[in-house]
């Protein structure tokens, strides 16, 4: 830690067994600051999550080794640091985040946190470091992604990445769909998609994943990494066996969050070949998050993406009638997916940068 930052402490976060545990204080502060940071950046509260709902996402698993720290200034928690090491065979990558309250910016705290991130990743033998940040729209100079799609302002966070040797690889669009408006378009598009997808039928479930669907759902989850546009980012191939599907189920079940999986089943083979995931916390008046959506490569061209998305939204209107909107994220160069979202009525609300550094 630089001499000028004597009041600052980067403290490893020990996860409590529950939010009521006597040692849960640091964790609860971390969640409070996390939610406040996202609100400061985005201007809305839709990224917030309750402490007991976040907790199941955070422990290390057989798939990912996870380290976290809280950042304290004079004893006050002002931010957090997260560092993930995927545990796929011979992985070289690490994913990290540093999130500080606005009033702590510009004093070198982020750089001290970054030094810890890079040192820890090196010690763990990882050489490809990747990170995402929202860059709120702002006037002035912009940075373009090397994909040729999208740009972000040359803002404080962008300067931070560039100063620490990172390159902008991809822009991700964050879009929102108004769940309180008309569903006429969704209904019409669903009918069109059903007509084009005559060899497929829709299935839907919430965790626990029915045993009959676990293998092909696991296969589709593993294809998210290989079949979605990754620009210059590095991802390991993932193996989603039944145990990993069960761990994914448990995160939602343990936190009381509702996951709805809507999938298209290829009638001839019985395989699931396209899916969409919507998630909401226990408070059903809060925003909904769209997680993975994918059509397996061999089954593209039958409007299955439109089918699973529209069917999911139609069902969601009954599941969470008071949720105001759905948030989703897509690569800005992913035209086929953006076409679907735009047709349904999703509108862009923010842009994220995906940043990468290769250590020498
Ligand atoms: C991006 C982020 C982590 C940077 O943290 P930070 O503490 O502001 O970073 P630093 O203070 O180390 O560096 C920022 C600037 O302050 C300058 N600075 C550092 N120490 C300073 C000091 N003592 N006095 C004055 N300026 C200082 C740096 O030189 C740098 O200047 P630059 O913008 O011209 O490059 C922080 O803004 C943040 O949490 N943003 C929201 C979340 C986010 O976008 N995270 C990105 C990674 S996930």
UniProtKB/TrEMBL annotation:
The protein's matches in Gene3D superfamilies, at most eight in alphabetical order, are given as: 3.40.630.30
One example of the protein's molecular function in GO is: acyltransferase activity, transferring groups other than amino-acyl groups
Q: Where is the N-acetyltransferase domain?
A: 17-192
Highest rank taxon of the organism: Bacteria
Against InterPro entries, the record matches this protein to: Acyl_CoA_acyltransferase, GNAT_dom
Name the UniProt key words of this record, in alphabetical order. Transferase
Q: Which Pfam families match?
A: Acetyltransf_1 (PF00583)
What is the protein name for this chain? Answer: GNAT superfamily N-acetyltransferase
Provide the species name: Microbacterium thalassium
List the lineage, top down: Bacteria, Bacillati, Actinomycetota, Actinomycetes, Micrococcales
């Amino acid at each position: 830690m630089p001499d000028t930052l004597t009041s600052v402490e980067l403290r490893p976060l020990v996860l409590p067994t529950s939010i009521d545990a006597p040692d849960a204080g640091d964790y609860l502060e971390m969640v409070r600051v996390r939610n406040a940071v996202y609100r400061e950046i985005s201007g809305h509260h839709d990224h917030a999550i309750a402490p007991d709902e976040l907790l199941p996402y955070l422990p290390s698993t057989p798939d990912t080794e996870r380290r976290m720290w809280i950042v304290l200034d004079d004893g006050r928690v002002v931010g957090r640091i997260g560092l993930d090491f995927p545990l796929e065979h011979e992985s070289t990558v690490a994913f990290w985040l540093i999130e500080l309250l606005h009033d702590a910016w510009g004093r070198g705290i982020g750089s001290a946190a970054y030094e810890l991130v890079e040192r820890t990743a090196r010690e763990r033998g990882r050489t490809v470091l990747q990170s995402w940040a929202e860059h709120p729209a702002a006037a002035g100079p912009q940075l373009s992604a090397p994909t040729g799609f999208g740009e972000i302002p040359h803002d404080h966070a962008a300067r931070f990445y560039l100063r620490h040797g990172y390159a902008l690889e991809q822009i991700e669009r964050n879009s929102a769909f108004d769940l309180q408006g008309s569903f006429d378009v969704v209904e019409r598009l669903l009918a069109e998609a059903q007509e084009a997808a005559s060899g497929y039928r829709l299935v839907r479930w919430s965790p626990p994943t029915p045993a009959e669907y676990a293998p092909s759902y696991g296969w589709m989850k593993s294809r998210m990494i290989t079949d979605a546009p990754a620009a210059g980012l590095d991802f390991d191939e993932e193996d989603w066996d039944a145990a990993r599907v069960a761990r994914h189920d448990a995160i939602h079940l343990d936190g009381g969050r509702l996951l709805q999986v809507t999938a298209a089943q290829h009638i001839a083979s019985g395989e699931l070949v396209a899916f969409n995931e919507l998630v909401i916390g226990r408070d059903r008046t809060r925003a909904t998050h769209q997680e993975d959506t994918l059509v397996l490569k061999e089954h593209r061209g039958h409007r299955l993406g439109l089918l699973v998305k529209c069917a999911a939204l139609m069902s969601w209107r009954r599941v969470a009638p008071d949720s105001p909107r759905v948030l989703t994220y897509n690569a800005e160069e992913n035209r086929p997916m953006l076409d679907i979202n735009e047709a349904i009525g999703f509108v862009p609300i923010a842009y994220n940068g995906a940043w990468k550094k290769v250590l020498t």
